[in-house]
Amino acid sequence: MLAITVLSITACDSRSGRVKYLVGDDSLRAYFSLDARSVTIYASPEDKKEGRIECRLYDDESEVFARMFRVLDDDAIEKAYREKGSSRFSPAFIKKIISADDAEFRPAGDPARPLEGLRVAIDPGHSADTMEEAVREGKYILLFTPEGEKLSFYEAALNLATAMMLKEMLERDGATVMLTRTRGGQVYPVPYDTWVKKSFRRAVREKERDGFITPAAAKRLLTRSSDRLRLKFFNSEFEMPHRAMLINRFRPHVTVLAHYDARDATPDYRTKYRLIKNIARSRGNTSERMKRINEVVDSISA
């Protein structure tokens, strides 16, 4: 539904250009269509082929649609969405939404606390609590000096540190701030290693049944997936929805996602290439040298 709101407030050509920023997986394109005056959502790819509409939002309804998220609770929002279908919002519904108090933030009169009353949710991205976990996520930086000295850090820790600093700054100005996590580690209550052993196969089948992943993606996960791909599936289908639930309960005026780009910023890999050559030419235990070479190779951004 968020994608509907964002897409509906721009012209069709602009929407089409922005779809790539909103669609995290190409399989999602089977669930919506765009035209000059509306965005249409389908419950499944089969429904799209058959023209069975779940919800259609017209351009001139975008403000009412966005406002209903501020004035209705979750159950009422879902009910309104499902009842809408391809029809327009009724005059009575529009009047109800417009007349309701939307609890928008209004700056306080105290210049010392200008953000008094503002609710801000901050989600520090990723979950690693150690470098080992960050390597497992693939969200870390491993640098080497020309002399071969190793420097490492990981994104989850940077995200959390940034979120904590932002929280302190906002609270100083009077805002009420919630963090989805206040320490390293995942937010979803079942640890990943436990979940993957007990629930992975069932979860894949359920997500396929409910249309969240394609049959091809389900087969790939069940037959050929690496631990990193299974972890990615867990994060996208369980960890992130759980964080979204916590944020929605808080009902923030503003939500901030704290992320960094966990990639080596320079395309010049000569330092790492020279290091690999030096390790290969050095003497010593072969398995230890290969371990060091693999560590350097794995740290190079794809």
Task: Identify the notable features of this structure and list them briefly.
globular; 3-stranded antiparallel beta sheet; 12% strand; mainly alpha; 302 residues; 8 strands; 14 helices; 3-stranded parallel beta sheet
Order of helices and strands: HHEEHEHHHEHEEHEHHHHEHH
Note the quaternary state here.
single chain
Q: How much helix, percentage-wise, in residues? A: 40-55%
- The total count of strands amounts to 8
Task: Give, in spatial order, the strands making up the sheet with the most strands.
Answer: 1-2-3
Q: Unreliable runs, pLDDT <50, ≥5 residues?
A: 5-13
Query: Which secondary-structure class do the elements indicate?
Result: mainly alpha
The proportion of residues in beta strands is 5-15%
In one word, what is the shape?
globular
Q: What is the arithmetic mean of pLDDT? A: 85
Number of helices, where a helix is a run of at least 4 consecutive DSSP H or I residues: 14
Main sheet: strands, sense, barrel: 3 strands, antiparallel
- Through-space gap between termini: 32 Å
Evaluate the radius of gyration. 24 Å
Write a structural description.
By secondary structure, the protein is mainly α. The chain is 51% helix and 12% strand. It contains 14 helices and eight strands. The protein has helices at 2-8, 12-22, 45-50, 62-71, 74-84, 91-99, 131-137, 155-172, 192-198, 200-209, 215-224, 227-250, 270-281, 286-298, and strands spanning 32-34, 38-41, 55-58, 119-124, 140-144, 150-154, 176-179, 254-258. The strands form three sheets. It has a three-stranded antiparallel β-sheet with strand order 1-2-3. A hairpin with a 5-residue loop joins strand 5 (140-144) and strand 6. The longest helix has 24 residues, at 227-250. It is globular and about 80 Å long. Residues 5-13 have low confidence and may be disordered.
